[in-house]
Hints:
mainly alpha; single chain
Amino acid sequence: MPCVGYLIQLLSFGSFIGVVTGNPTKFAIIYSLGNILSLIGYDHPSYRRTGFLIGFRKQLQNMADKERRVTSIIFISALIMTIISAVVLESRLLVLLCLIVQIPAYIWYVATYIPFARQCILNCIQAVFRR
């Protein structure tokens, strides 16, 4: 299941040109759908199980633990707001703003499952801004 989510995320970049040309809605919906599928079937590196195998309660417990709580809240909120902004409000500006929050929040969320990944990301960001 996570592979399907990742594939959908990858395919969503085919409509990324819409973000540049001022119509991010199609990209936002496809990308968010990919995130949802990846999230409910996320492979945990230490035991290679998905939300379907370990159960959604355990997945939610993993998301709510101290290390991931804030990141999970930001990510889920941005995900929901992206879809609402695209489908209900039909606001291109809000969709774009939500994507600006959702994409890095998803990257940071995934990094919480990989040892030293967050520190690596922080080191890269610091290196960019030191120049």
